[in-house]
Amino acid sequence: MREWRDTHRQLLLLAREEGWSLNDEAADYESLHRALLTGLLGNVVTRNEDGEWLSTRNRKPLLWPGSSLSKGGDKKAKLRWLVAAEQVETSRLFARCVARIEPQWVEAEAAHLIKRQYFEPHWSKKRGCVMAKEQINLFGLILASGRRMHYGPLEPELARELMIREGLVAGELTREPEFVAANRERLQRLEEMEHKLRRRDILVDEETRFLFYDQRLPSGLYTLAHLETWYKKQAGEHERQALFMDDEFLLSHSPDLQGGAFPDELEWDGMRLPLEYSFDPTGDRDGVTVIVPAGALQQLHAERLAWLVPGLLREKLEALIRGLPKARRRHFVPVPDYVAALQESLSPDQPLLPAMTRELQRMTGVRVEQEEWREDQLPGHLRMNVRVTDGQGKVLAEDRDLARLQQRFEALAGEREASPAREEVVSGRTWVFGTLPACQESEQGGVVFRRYPALRDRGEDVALEHHADADDAHWWHGIGCARLMLLALNEQVRGLKRFAGQQPGFQKLKAEKSAMARGALDQALLRATVSHFHLHDQPLRDEAAFRERLDQGRGEFVPAVEQALRTWGELFAAYRRVMQRLEKNFPLAWAHAHRDLKQQLDDLFSDDFLLTVPKEWLDQYPRYLAAVEQRLEKLGGQIGRDRAVVAELEEFRERYHRRAKDTPPWRQSEALRLYRWMMEEYRVSLFAQPLGTRVPVSAKRLNRQWEAC
């Protein structure tokens, strides 16, 4: 403080000598120090990030130890800018008579001395002009750095170029003048052709579009506000029209788009689902994406999606053939010729891979097994991407594996149905379901999709469900109606259960703990009821029809079911005789036959065979068991032949199960179902030829039937 009192006294004496008048009021801190700054600009001092003091001309002074600002601990640490009355060099360079100041005071008082530098000019979408970062220096001391400021007035030509490149061409505008919006929409429409054709050379580049605007916009326009004012108030009609781009300008050459090759929608089962195209080989959505509401997902079939769109089919066919094992692929050379022939003969109303197999075999005589087609290893753009949305268009999931998506959303649907927050499921022990249409249509997300109502057997009652597949709904509805019939005929059913308990076959099943044995009687009653009331042949849709059918068949119900139970009782008795022989100790040399027979019986007597096996083949079961018994009788003297035959049978069985997987019989193709029962007939011809077969069969016929699958 003594230093400042000395300074104040000296200034006061000088002012009196010069005849200056004194202030009526004392000056405040800022006014005083800004006045002092005008003569002390070379002594401005700042603290850097390392805690060192820096001054102009790259000097590094220390604060004079006697200064009050050199002390103070935390208060000193907060000091950022100072001005010194003098800088004296003794043992070190010291700044004396220092005071706290603000950097903006220095900038204002040294406006004629500071130097400004500008960095990183860029277009600001938010501000609608070109901004840059400013750095201010005073004798090498940085007063400000990174300050954002309007750069247009400093370099209008560069600012105009950036506005055109970033704002107009790249679309970085918060408000689009009419011509910019129209050009962008036209460009987006034409860009879809690039995605469809998977090419990047159809549209003119950004430099061409920049030159288009550069040649038509007057100089001096470098902000969005300037552009809008000129376009609305100053530009003539001819100048405005010249700013609109047409297709001829935007296309570098005319693309070869065949009509219908790249549709905007996928039509399937009465639905029209939007298609989206993307040419992004590194992205997850590369290729074609079909957009489907979650409620319609179960109606999609992988067979239809396998066809993609006509414009990509040729590339997919070629990739499939080239992906075959070398031993197969060499028969289809040159590949493009075979692909061209396939395109002429294939039709999308049939599954793609079986159709390819059939046509290639017709051309060359060489058969490709369906499992050899490696569709899962194709590039992403040759497999349809499925995007699932909710009612508002929000994306719920995406995947190229339709089955995985359907399984996931089927499980979610089940959870929602079980949730108490959802409407209670309609169920009952009598017909309480009103009139059920064969199909219900609804709209979600602009897409019309179908659901198929059906009654579902729950053991103690029946519930109304909606299926995405018509075949599933038809099958389950017949079983559900049968349960309602049994509930309505409760008195008769109790008597039928007592009757079944007297049949040796049902009695012997009690010794078996399998799921088939536990459910055999209930499924037998359901199967007999479906058959007696013709519930699969003539579906019931309302209560009146249900009552009428019940009354018509009530009188003959018990005799008809007793006859069915008697027949199946004999079947189960024969089944248990065979199983008892297999459960005994078999010679080790018969192990191959034991394994094969167990597999055969597991296939024949699956958990729900009484419900799922067609009548014409279920009637053959006694003959199949008789053939098994004859095989066991002869096995001891024909072990070598039996072992050779088993290897052939295992190959037939394996390819059937590999193809059928978990698909229920009513959804398998007719050819595949026939193949399955021809295998049983072939066994009869091998091991019990005197029993005869229902259809002509041999290994050659089996292979020929497989070719039709």
In short:
The chain is an alpha+beta fold and about 700 residues long. About 50% of the residues lie in helices and about 15% in strands.
What is the share of helical residues? Answer: 40-55%
Average of per-residue pLDDT values: 86
Strand count, sense and barrel status of the largest sheet are: 5 strands, mixed
Bulk shape: elongated
Low-confidence stretches: 414-423
Strand order of the largest sheet: 2-1-4-5-3
The secondary structure category is alpha+beta
Verbal overview:
This protein has 709 residues and is of the alpha+beta class. The chain has 28 helices and 17 strands. It has a five-stranded mixed beta sheet with strand order 2-1-4-5-3, with no helix packed on it. A five-stranded mixed beta sheet has the order 9-10-11-12-13. Helix 25 (621-634) packs parallel to helix 27 (670-687) and helix 26 packs antiparallel against helix 27. The N and C termini lie far apart (105 Å).
Summarize the topology:
Layout: H1 2-18, H2 29-37, E1 44-47, E2 53-55, E3 62-63, H3 74-77, E4 81-89, E5 93-100, H4 103-109, E6 115-124, E7 129-138, E8 141-150, H5 156-169, H6 178-197, H7 206-216, H8 224-234, H9 237-241, H10 247-250, E9 265-268, E10 271-278, E11 287-293, H11 302-305, H12 310-322, H13 326-329, H14 335-345, H15 352-364, E12 385-389, E13 395-399, H16 402-418, E14 427-428, E15 440-444, E16 447-457, E17 462-467, H17 470-488, H18 490-501, H19 504-509, H20 515-532, H21 543-583, H22 591-604, H23 609-612, H24 615-618, H25 621-634, H26 639-660, H27 670-687, H28 699-707
Parallel strand pairs: 3-5, 11-12
Antiparallel strand pairs: 1-2, 1-4, 4-5, 6-7, 7-8, 9-10, 10-11, 12-13, 14-17, 15-16, 16-17
Helix pairs in contact: 5-7, 12-14, 17-20, 18-21, 20-21, 21-25, 25-27, 26-27, 27-28
